[in-house]
Design goal:
heterodimer; A: about 525 residues; Glutaredoxin; 4 domains; five-stranded mixed beta sheet; 21 helices; B: about 160 residues; 2 domains
């Protein structure tokens, strides 16, 4: 029986994948064709979604941007055997966008049936867990430290050190928590993994839990990701049924329970202490650090809080060895980064590659410039708290330190492209407004500063005493940066200052002194 | 997910059953409030009192949690809920024009419900569909590649 793949990924469904499946099933029934329709994850080439693939003797053959109306014609053209058609793109893995990637974390995403444990194992699943269980917790920590893996949520803290801290901490119970509150605009890698390869995240959580000695874990998923919530709940159910979760994980006597928690639409809950408060059933207000969650985290117990991509990198590190991972990358940024190309870009999507690729390569070469055809003016990297980069900084390599040296952040790897119609004063105002909307309210610089920031920028836009108000804005940015409890208030000055520094003409200014650090 | 017209009217007995399902769960308040809203479309004051009593919290504490999370409603929404993404990646793809067209089409601003109770228009900050925007979530169903004409059709579809 022919297998046909139509992604069940939320972004594919948003552009008609479910309607394509209905048309395909209806037409198949009418023609007496038998086929198995698999709802895979997305390969991350969003320009081509819905991307339908037929399993043929020559491999999987893809048909891009398929609409329900295309189905009869596609079947007439012999789609099930890879027949010619204007929508035919050949083997997806031969697309330059996919061919140029180094997919370690996303190796299976878009290829396997995310609901199938059999598919997961057949494509190399559980090998990292098996290696971990065979070597012991301390050896697992050593491997992760040697891999150089840093937290992919944005802060870039060495993952092995964090796990080692939790392992060494004493507590009646310990927890691992997966931060799947992927709120940064321009990012969707966590969502794609949860929808397209959920057992990978479960395996990563098991490895982390085994390393630190935790018996319970939570996956905190934002409510804006209903498909990811369903996919994770389904995968957790299947993992329990197959003995990969519960009192005796894979026959090892290691016990681990895992539960999904759904957020409430608050961006700040992506901050780890706010996230822990939310799991405890409280308002998602940030905690002062110290104590670090590694010492006193969830319910006051030692807790490892890690991003989806950090945990999803662990199975590779364990199964292939720390060196295989560390061999990729540059400087202190080791391994690969799933970069997400978004906004006004022709070839947007998920691009996993070794650290070191430049912003210009990503935008102009891999992303092929803007979708609108207008010139690129600014690129925001790292979500709403990331800096706006002008074309002059396109030689910046994707590397934690290189971005920091240019006043930016890599963050969670989101790259949002803006064309020349963008008003950077409005973007700066929006950054402050977003902070005002999303502030948890606990600290004054963030709660009040963001609202004052909106007002000051509005005065600058209106042409009121521009130089004085700009000085005031700079002062306010210092207060927020230095005085806020967490990254929301602390990093909002990044997009604001990058806008005034690199695009002063949008604020009615001709020249702007560099902000004092 | 069905339109909000599919939700049930509040019943204290049923609310109590929902809360009881979370017996023994640590940090159960947010999951309880989600379940209450899923069933009834909003979180009535009676549910706040019930949850407070069951979890041994003050009503003020439950109220504090309820009002912290933008997802949770203290009043019923319109029959349809249309969430339009306002975040940067959708802005870069023409999201502001889509929002303006939606507001003009039904005559209410983001965050409001039409006077006939038909549509609630809400902002959402990123749906993770950032290479396929501008995006929306319509009664839980994702929609991408919107333009002003597309969002008008969506709102007229009923």
């Amino acid at each position: 029986m022919t297998r046909v793949y139509v992604p069940g990924d939320m972004a594919a469904v948003a552009v008609g994948a479910d309607e394509v499946v209905a048309a395909l099933a209806g037409e198949a029934a009418a023609r007496g064709l038998t086929m198995e329709i698999v709802r895979n994850g997305s390969r991350g080439v969003f320009e081509l979604e819905p991307l339908v693939e037929a399993q043929t003797s020559a491999g999987r053959i893809g048909y891009g941007r398929v609409s329900p109306q295309d189905i009869p014609g596609l079947l007439d053209a012999g789609m099930l055997d890879g027949g010619e058609h204007p929508a035919r793109i050949g083997r997806p893995e031969d697309l330059p966008f996919l061919k140029r990637q180094t997919r370690l974390t996303f190796a299976r995403c878009g290829i396997i049936d995310p609901a199938s444990l059999g598919d997961y194992r057949a494509h190399g699943g559980w090998k990292g867990l098996e290696r971990a269980l065979a070597t012991g917790g301390q050896a697992v920590v050593e491997q992760i430290k040697a891999s150089g893996l840093r937290g992919r949520g944005g802060a870039g803290f060495p993952a092995g050190i964090k796990l080692e801290t939790v392992r060494a901490a004493s507590g009646a119970r310990k927890f691992v928590v997966c931060n799947a509150d992927e709120g940064d605009s321009g990012t969707f890698a966590d969502r794609m993994i949860m929808e397209g390869d959920p057992f990978l995240l479960i395996e990563g959580l098991l490895i982390a839990a085994y390393a630190v000695g935790a018996a319970k874990g939570y996956v905190y998923i934002r409510s804006e990701y209903p498909f990811a919530v369903r996919a994770m709940e389904r995968a957790i159910g299947a993992a329990y049924a197959a003995g990969f979760l519960g009192p005796d994980v894979a026959g090892s006597y290691f016990a681990f329970d895992l539960e999904v928690r759904v957020g409430g639409g608050a961006y700040v809950c992506g901050e780890e202490t706010s996230l822990l408060e939310s799991i405890e059933g409280k308002r998602g207000q940030v905690r002062a650090k110290p104590p670090l969650p590694a010492h006193e985290g969830l319910f006051g117990m030692p807790t490892a809080v890690n991003n989806v991509l950090t945990l999803a990198a662990l199975p590779f590190v364990l199964s292939e060895g720390a060196k295989a991972y560390a061999d990729f990358g540059m400087g202190r940024s080791r391994g690969t980064m799933p970069i997400q190309l978004a906004g006004d870009i022709k070839n947007g999507g998920l691009f996993e590659t070794a650290f070191g690729v430049t912003l210009g390569e990503l935008v102009d070469d891999i992303g092929r410039g803007t979708l609108s055809g207008r010139p690129v003016r600014a690129v925001q990297v790292g979500g709403p708290l990331g800096a706006y980069f002008p074309r002059a900084l396109f030689d910046t390599p994707f590397d934690y330190e290189a971005f920091a040296a240019r006043g930016g952040i890599v963050g969670h790897g989101g790259v949002v492209v803006f064309n020349d119609s963008v008003d950077m004063a409005e973007q700066a105002r929006f950054a402050m407004q977003f902070c005002a909307i999303e502030s948890c309210g606990k600290c004054t610089p963030c709660r009040i500063g963001s609202t004052r920031g909106v007002e000051v920028i509005e005065r600058i836009i209106a042409g009121e005493r521009r130089a004085e108000n700009l000085e005031l804005l700079n002062d306010l940015c210092d207060t927020m940066k230095l005085g806020s409890l967490c990254a929301l208030g602390g990093l909002t000055p990044l997009p604001v200052r990058s806008a005034t520094t690199h695009f002063p003409e949008d604020f009615g200014l001709t020249a702007q002194p560099e902000p004092a650090e | 997910m069905a339109p909000n017209s599919a939700v049930r009217p509040w019943s204290a007995e049923h609310g109590g059953e929902i809360i009881a399902r979370h017996d023994g769960q640590e940090g159960a308040l947010l999951p309880i409030l989600h379940d209450i809203q899923h069933e009834f479309g909003w979180v009535p004051d009676e549910a706040v009192a019930q949850a407070a009593l069951t979890l041994n919290l003050s009503r003020a504490e439950v109220h504090g949690v309820l009002t912290f999370y933008p997802d949770l409603r203290r009043a019923p929404a319109g029959r349809r809920v249309v969430k339009l993404c306002q975040a940067e990646a959708c802005q870069a793809r023409g999201g502001r024009a889509v929002t303006a067209a939606a507001e003009a089409a039904i005559g209410v601003l983001l965050g409001a419900t039409t006077p006939d109770g038909e549509v609630t228009l809400e902002p959402v900050y990123c749906l993770g569909l950032c290479a396929s925007g501008p995006s929306a979530l319509v009664d839980g169903r994702p929609v991408g590649r919107l333009d002003p004409a597309g969002v008008r059709r969506l709102l007229e579809a009923g």
